[in-house]
Structure formats: C-alpha cells, structure tokens
Amino acid sequence: MERITPPLAAGERETLRTYLDYHRATLAWKCEGLTDEELRRASMPPSTLSLLGLVRHMAEVERHWFRRVLGGGELPHLWSDSHDFQAAYDASGSTRAEAFAAWEAEVAHARRIEAEAESLDVTAYVPSWKEEASLRLLMLHLIHEYARHNGHADFLREAIDGVTGA
C-alpha cells in the first residue's frame, strides 16, 4: 500500500479519502519487514494487543462501517461468532497472510462503497448511535480510529526492533 502525503489544498472528499488512505498505509508500513512471530508479539501481558491484532481489528472496523453500516450488509464478524470486535486483537494463531488478506479485502470494499456514494452527505443508520450519520462523519471516524491505533503501532514496532518514525 503506497503511503501518499495528504494534499494541503484539495476538496473535502479528496482530503478525507487521502487522509484515510494515508493512515491505512501507515499501519501497513509499521508492519513491514517483520516476521509473523514479531507481528504476533503482544505488547504486555495480560494484553493480547499486537501489530497483527491491530491489522485484524482494522479489518473488522472497515467491514463494520463500510459494508454493514453504509452498505447495509448483514455480515458476520471475521474473528468472532459473538460480534466481539475485541476478539480480533488476539492474533496468537494468525499469520500475516491471513490478516493482511482480510484487511486488504475490506479496504477494497470500503473504497468501492465510498466511491459509489453520491456525496459525503449520504447517510446511514448507526445502530450503536441510534441515529443517522453521514459518510463524511464515518470517514472522519475511521481516520480517528486509524490515527489512534497507529499510535499503538508506533510503540509496538519500537518494542520489537527499535524502529520509529511517523
């Protein structure tokens, strides 16, 4: 995934789209060059948080907001039969190939759904919020979610091999 610097002067939709892709690419970058074992390395017991767990979690997040909420699909969770988003964090039995394939597939679906939306003003009902939300807000929510978890990824990566960087 190419990490493109977001534009300093662009339209709203292009800016949101580019920032979301920037954060997606940042997560992939934090995982580059690591073995499956390193990607599964948990942060600190009892937490199961790992880089691979973050990738799995973000696959669930992309799936939920774009395919379930915006797209209206009735889809199961990828790693939980009980609709538990937290289950994705436990990547102890996962591989890079499995996690990245799921995440990349969900990102592709999300990009398609966003591109097909007429405008950022398109709304969808969010059951957990009990109200309608615009595509604009959903994209901002995803940017926030990635930015927060990319902060976790910074610390996880530094603990593995000392690599840092924004």
Q: How would you portray this structure in words?
A:
The protein has 166 residues and is mostly helical. The chain has one domain: dinb family like domain (Four Helix Bundle (Hemerythrin (Met), subunit A), Up-down Bundle), CATH 1.20.120. It is built from five helices and two strands. A two-stranded antiparallel sheet has the order 1-2. The mean pLDDT is 94.
Task: Provide tags for this entry.
two-stranded antiparallel ribbon, single chain, mainly alpha, Four Helix Bundle (Hemerythrin (Met), subunit A), 166 residues
CATH class: Mainly Alpha
End-to-end separation in angstroms reads 16 Å
Identify the overall geometry. globular
Order of helices and strands: HHHHEEH
Identify low-pLDDT runs: none
Strand content: under 5%
Question: How helix-rich are the residues, as a percent range?
Answer: 55-70%
For this structure, the CATH topology is Four Helix Bundle (Hemerythrin (Met), subunit A)
Compact description:
This protein is mostly helical and 166 residues long.
List the helices and strands and how they pair.
Blueprint lengths: L11 H20 L4 H5 L10 H20 L25 H21 L6 E4 L4 E4 H27 L5
Antiparallel strand pairs: 1-2
Helix pairs in contact: 1-3, 1-5, 3-4, 3-5
